[in-house]
Amino acid sequence: MIIPLEEVVIDERARDGTWCRLPYPGHPKGCPNYPECIQERPHIGEYEGYEWFGVVRRFDLNAHAVEMKEAHPDWSESQRRNDQEWQDGVISELREEADAFADPSVSDVVLERPEGHGVDMWATMARGGVKLETNDPDIIHKIVLVGKRRPGV
Questions:
Q1: pLDDT at 100
Q2: Buried (b) or exposed (e) across 58-76, using 16+ Cβ within 10 A?
Q3: Peptide bond preceding 35 in cis form (omega within 30 of 0)
């Protein structure tokens, strides 16, 4: 699904390590890619003159776990929900959709990890009409941003 975004919300906590260092399951010190992830990405402010679109994939982890239980009855619940079992496929589909929408020959860009560029994705998507579930660990959204250069810029 491609969502036009009227505003991309910038929040420096996405780049200064505040959010990156928050613990999450399996990562008590936060994201293992911090600070390299941020150091290798330009700030979103460097992309002046772009219109932005969110390319969104919604993934129902619970439905996936139910399918895995049927296919692999001997697997534990943890194995059924393991992101290594589903994430690559979702990300691949997301990239395909973003790449089909973006036209690099006219300087379109695809930002695969928008937070690393300084974007508050929760606020950005909310302003674009997409409410990301915060209290449902079974619904996962993977999102990339596509920037299309405005004509004449």
A1: 92
A2: ebebeebbeebeeeeeeee
A3: yes
